[in-house]
Inverse folding.
């Protein structure tokens, strides 16, 4: 007689919602409770009625990101989607449904589609990018500095990376703003998510058509001419990946760094005095608040045990990047040595983020520029009143309302300003 497979824990439990975790004031407290109850792999709810597994352990995270023969990125392996449990109108699909791009590919197909991204990122001149980001930041600040108050998310962090990344692809400022609005909807995984996705792709499609008529030295043209990309849809989907991933995550990183500096006196003092280097400060933020809180997804290609849980063929697994950063295996005894970049903020394995240095240039420049041009920053609400955008994937402040001393001259970019923490 055949022994029946164990029942999945989430078949009978009330599950914690991923969005509830990202909306929580302290997600790490929830991760700790989930570890105590379930171990390093916990059942969660992606949206009402749609279950999944949240992988929180460092060892288990490396297993599912590195063993492509066991865990696929291809959502066509998602059993609950194929069985109709996930609605065709689900807000999850713009982030999780199969796309014919590098995110949905495995093994050799992934390598083929990944190379154009690596080559494109490799051609970016980071010195020129830093100057361009300084100019973008200064122009944004000029629009509100005279009032002595602003929302550092809506007026600043939400636009700096999009305008910077858009310019790399040859898009103008207006198109950058339109892309940002579309991406807010896409990443929310709410009811307007699919509309935002269609708008996003249309803008990029129009840009691609323009470059085919008038090629220039930008990333759109570089992707269009790359021998690994076989047709327009592959070029378009490569643009989708680079722009969407580069924007939302960098927005979160900028916002969290500014929030930490404004609200954590010790952090700010160590940074300004030079006790904490700028890059070390940015990594401190990545440890606690990685830009991608929960990364979709991997799909089990066979029944397997992982972290004490029975994973069925077709189950979906979410990479708990934030949760993994608090895994005791990464910081035994709760202590991390200085200059530690062993965090999981960029994921792991073949699909690890290819643009880590570029996002760091944009974030560092945006933070430096804001702090030099907006003296005396302080929140107009208490830290406990800060809320978070509704998304199961990212945890970005909804708003950072601040006041500051009105600068005497805010028209020139701070090209000669010393970075925060750097002494003369």
């Amino acid at each position: 007689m055949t022994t029946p497979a164990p029942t999945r824990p989430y078949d009978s439990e009330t599950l914690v919602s991923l969005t509830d975790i990202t909306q929580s004031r302290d997600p790490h407290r929830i991760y700790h409770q989930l570890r105590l109850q379930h171990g390093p792999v916990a059942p969660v709810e992606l949206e009402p009625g749609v279950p999944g597994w949240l992988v929180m352990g460092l060892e288990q995270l490396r297993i599912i990101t590195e063993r492509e023969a066991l865990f696929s990125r291809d959502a066509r392996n998602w059993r609950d989607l194929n069985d109709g449990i996930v609605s065709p109108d689900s807000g999850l699909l713009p982030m999780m449904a199969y796309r014919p791009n590098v995110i949905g590919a495995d093994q050799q197909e992934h390598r083929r589609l990944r190379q154009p991204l690596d080559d494109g990122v490799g051609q970016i001149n980071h010195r020129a990018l830093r100057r361009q980001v300084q100019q973008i930041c200064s122009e944004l600040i000029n629009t509100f500095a005279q009032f002595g108050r602003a929302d550092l998310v809506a007026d600043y962090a939400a636009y700096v990376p999009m305008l910077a990344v858009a310019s790399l692809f040859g898009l103008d400022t207006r198109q950058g703003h339109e892309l940002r609005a579309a991406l807010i909807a896409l990443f929310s995984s709410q009811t307007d998510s699919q509309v935002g996705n269609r708008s996003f792709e249309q803008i990029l499609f129009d840009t691609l058509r323009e470059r085919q008529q008038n090629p220039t030295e930008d990333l759109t043209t570089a992707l269009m001419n790359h021998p690994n990309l076989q047709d327009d849809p592959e070029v378009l989907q490569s643009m989708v990946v680079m722009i969407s991933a580069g924007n939302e995550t960098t927005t979160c990183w900028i916002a969290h760094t500014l929030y930490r500096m404004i609200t954590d006196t010790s952090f700010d003092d160590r940074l300004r005095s030079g006790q904490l280097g700028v890059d070390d400060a940015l990594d401190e933020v990545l440890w606690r608040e990685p830009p991608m809180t929960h990364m979709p997804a991997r799909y089990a290609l066979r029944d397997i045990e992982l972290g004490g849980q029975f994973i069925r063929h077709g189950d979906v697994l979410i990479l708990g990047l934030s949760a993994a950063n608090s895994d005791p295996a990464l910081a035994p005894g709760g202590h991390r040595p200085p200059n530690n970049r062993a965090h999981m903020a960029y994921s792991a394995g073949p699909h690890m983020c290819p643009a880590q240095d570029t996002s760091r240039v944009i974030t560092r420049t945006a933070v430096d520029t804001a702090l030099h041009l907006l003296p005396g920053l302080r929140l107009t609400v208490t830290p406990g009143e800060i809320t978070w955008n509704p998304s199961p994937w990212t945890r970005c402040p909804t708003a950072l309302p601040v006041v500051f001393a009105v600068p005497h001259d805010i028209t020139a970019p701070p090209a000669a300003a010393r970075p925060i923490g750097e002494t003369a």
